[in-house]
Design goal:
This protein is α/β, with parallel strands linked by helices. About 45% of the residues lie in helices and about 15% in strands. It has helices at about 15-20, 30-55, 70-80, 95-110, 120-125, 145-155, 170-180, 180-185, 195-215, 250-260, 270; strands spanning about 60-65, 90, 115, 135-145, 160-165, 220-225, 235-245.
Length: about 280
């Protein structure tokens, strides 16, 4: 049992040191405490989804998009996969140097069922290094359009569960600013995003609303909630999608109507159809 109450029982202290969450002498500073709390809180949502797939006797394949230094992937593996005889974690990250460091760490720790792929989401969709089907797709603070890339990957791979914590959604806000003059002439609602700060905040909210409609149009049931308290992170929205096959009948039409009303048609391809290959 760990001497530090914030650390979950069974968690490898050596892993936390390697991830620089713990200092070499086993201390936990305030910044690391916040980071660990976020990942643990997310683990509470992901664990039952993994257990659901595992209990059916499936292969249990998880892909973590925009993996960065792979904090989430390593902690998921350590707490859940390491104690089972099946299951694989794939970390997908375009910055190849981060993937190489993660690969070396997994080798040192004996985490044999972890793979790290230095490629884009588009490359990952077609890559023979990944299986044709992925059970669970995660993206923790994948910035801007990287969350949309993770969604596209998940749809093409027929993921049963998708867990997203979006971050830094700039593309929609930029499109709102470009069409602001025309929108102000057409509707008073454009006052919502007239000021740059409001463009950013409304753009973030709108981006996630469009993502939710996209997923519902592909047969996913959604839960949208907070990851942790706002005092720990401003990038705090958590979207959990479960594939049921039951398409929300008006989701695609609503998505299209919003794009049209807000003059965001150039972004249609990003939020459009993209089903299993």
């Amino acid at each position: 049992m760990s001497q530090i109450p914030e650390i979950r029982p069974g968690q490898s202290l050596e892993l936390l040191k390697e991830l620089h969450i713990l200092t070499r002498d086993g201390k936990l500073n305030q910044d690391s405490r916040r980071k660990l709390k976020q990942v643990y809180h997310l683990y509470r949502f992901i664990e039952p989804l993994l257990a659901e797939v595992a209990n059916r006797g499936g292969a249990l394949r998880l892909a973590d998009h925009g993996a960065g230094k792979s904090y989430l992937g390593f902690i998921l593996y350590d707490l859940f996969f390491r104690h089972r005889d099946r299951g694989h974690v794939y970390g997908i990250e375009q910055r190849r140097e981060l993937g190489e460091r993660a690969r070396q760490l997994a080798s040192r720790l004996g985490f044999e069922r972890m793979s790290f792929l230095g490629m884009s989401a588009e490359e990952a969709i077609e890559s023979p290094a990944l299986p044709a089907r992925i059970d669970v797709v995660t993206a923790l603070h994948a910035c801007d359009t990287a969350t949309d890339d993770a969604i596209r990957f998940a749809l093409r791979k027929g993921a049963e569960h998708i867990v997203l914590v979006p971050c830094c959604q700039a593309e929609v806000a930029a499109a709102l600013r470009r069409g602001k003059g025309e929108a102000l002439a057409a509707t008073a609602l454009a006052e919502i995003w007239r000021h740059p700060l409001h463009s950013r905040e409304f753009g973030s909210l709108l981006t996630n609303a469009l993502r939710c409609l996209q997923l519902e149009a592909h047969g996913y049931q959604l839960t949208v909630t907070e990851l942790v308290g706002w005092e720990h992170s401003l990038k705090n929205e958590l979207i959990i999608a479960r594939r049921t096959g039951a398409v929300r009948g008006n989701a695609a039409a609503r998505l299209e109507a919003i794009l049209h009303e807000l003059r965001l048609e150039p972004l249609r391809a990003r939020f459009g159809a993209c089903g299993p290959a």
